[in-house]
Amino acid sequence: MIGYVTIGTNDLERSAAFYDALLAEIDGKRMMEMETFIGWSGDGGTAMLAVTKPFDQNKATVGNGVMVALQADTKETVDKIYAKALALGGTDEGAPGPRGDTGFYAGYFRDLDGNKLNAFVFSG
After folding, report:
1. How many CB atoms lie within 10 A of CB 38?
2. What domains lie within the chain, and their CATH numbers?
3. Cα 35 from chain centre
4. Rg of the Cα trace of the chain?
5. How far apart are CA 43 and CA 28, in angstroms?
6. Dihedral sign (CA 38, 82, 118, 88)
7. Sheet with 48-52, edge to edge strand ranges
8. CA–CA separation, 79 vs 95, rounded Å?
9. pLDDT of residue 124
């Protein structure tokens, strides 16, 4: 249902390096690239995650309550994505673990621009 999600950055090169390494953990590859925009997707027509410098040329800011969720296939993959994000300079927003009793397992972090993401899997 979702085609793509775009988040802002003030340093496209730095953001690209972060997402190249992070999304490689779930086989994400650059699918679109322009002077102010880069998009990543997986094989098989999955939704795209993109970073962009704002069109209005103002500073990119973080949306309060906005979050991008990266779907993983196992709890171990969630743990790897979370650890990779922190190793790349991201910050902790909640260590991987179960959330509630629904089989939802997730780890939360912020990227280098302060955008909030998580990696998750439903195991039940």
Report:
1. 21
2. 4-53+67-122 (3.10.180.10)
3. 20
4. 14
5. 8
6. negative
7. 4-8, 48-52, 37-41, 29-34
8. 9
9. 61
Hey, what are 120's tokens?
Answer: 């998750």
Q: Alpha-carbon distance 52 to 60, whole Å?
A: 9
CA angle 36, 112, 12 (to 5 degrees): 15
pLDDT of 113 reads 96
Nearest Cα residue to 79 out of 115, 108, 113, 99: 108
Distance between CA atoms of residues 15 and 20, nearest Å: 8
d(CA 26, CA 72): 7
Cα–Cα dist 108/15, whole Å: 18
Taking residues 92-114, what's their average pLDDT?
96
Tokens of 100: 């509630």
Mean pLDDT, rounded, for 42-70: 91
